[in-house]
Fold this protein.
Amino acid sequence: MILPLNPELRSRPPGVRVKPRGRHGPTRLVLGDPVGYPHPAEIRKPRVAQGHISTRFSGPAPPAADSPTVVGSYGMARVDLINVCKTLKDRERGAFASPFVPPMRDLVSMPMGGGQGSAFSIQNLSLTIPDGKTMVILGPSGCGKTTLLKIIAGLIQPDSGDVRYDGVDVKHVRPGDRRIGMVFQNYALYPHLISRANVLSYFLFRKKTPEMTAMAQAKYQRTSELMGVELAYLLDRKPTTLSGGEKQRVALGRCITRDPALFLLDEPFSNLDQALREKYRVNLKILLRQFDITTVYVTHDHYEALILADLLAIMDRGSIEQVGTYDEIYTRPKNVFVAGFLNRHVGTPPLSLLDAQCMAHPQRPGNVHVGVRPEDVAVSRREGQDAIRGTVAGKVSLPMINATIFRIHVAEHEVYAEAADEEDLRAGDHVWLTFKQYHLFDKESGLRLRSFPETSTARVGP
């Protein structure tokens, strides 16, 4: 893969060497291909050779057109990850960068130590993505979301464990044969091809026959109909002339044209402004409902997860902490991390923790924390049954939800309470707090022990 040298790449990442300026053009960066799969950069005129189209790659030739695929021509894919383990050293992260993007510091797959030569690992991870469902993998930067997505795609091979599509182990199946459609965070479009060719790029790697040409035309027509005028007017333009939102549309169109059994999306809206993100989230949700296709979506955006997810998987430090619907996880978190990470309202603290001994009538004495969400704290000037005394330390108005967040001192702890804007409380006022719902967490392990009140719909654990 050959990229022009630009000022942003003057400090070369590992695995990249500089080819000196010559009579054929400017200085270029030449990327190796330690993964072992082709990373197309410059597509010359294709020529037919031994049953498949051969193009100019730094790696092996693409798979033959008649090579077997794992998922059938019809139907969806159930994906199972069973006891998957993978360790990546700091210098190896660049080897698994997206196509057309030079190896850079992958903030989504950073090692926990953060130092040179430190390692990031996924250990004994098991996860099931059901047929036709959209599973959103949600977690903080550096927890391994993108690494997990690339393991599913086959761009990274696990050290141990199985990845199965519809019960079939795909360890020895190349990514091109897995019938996946992937949208990268940086879109990975062919910069020298017009958008129409990018959308149909899947067929550049197949032997040209009348049947293949007819199939390409049919899928192009279907994609155009699904995405409408928002894609049509971009098709004769090159990616270098497109905005971030327009590139995202082309990348999604390319993904749809492949007619995949599995969608893999790596934060495709992170480079868009807020207005475009809101619009494309809704459009993507409509498209996913139309396809009813198995989808894995990686993000750290809570609001995005709430809109798109049929199932949510909370990830932290290379492990899946909890799987369930948004409401199940929000109301019955498995541990303190999940409870503190999942936040329904942007700008509000997700959870307050205080010692159980601060409760008026501790439900469980011992080494436990009480966790309560701001919307479950009722504030009053009058003492009530089982109420806790506190002092208002400050407040923040949130006009987007027509509420105010109060910061209240209870002993040495801080409790956040959400109340209506008409509450006339000032710093220094003494108040009484009652909890509508709260959780008990073990101080040492952080696991949720119990919730009050309990409900029959509780679901804890992955």
User: Anything to note?
Assistant: Residues 91 and 117 are 6 Å apart (CA to CA). The longest strand covers residues 79-89.
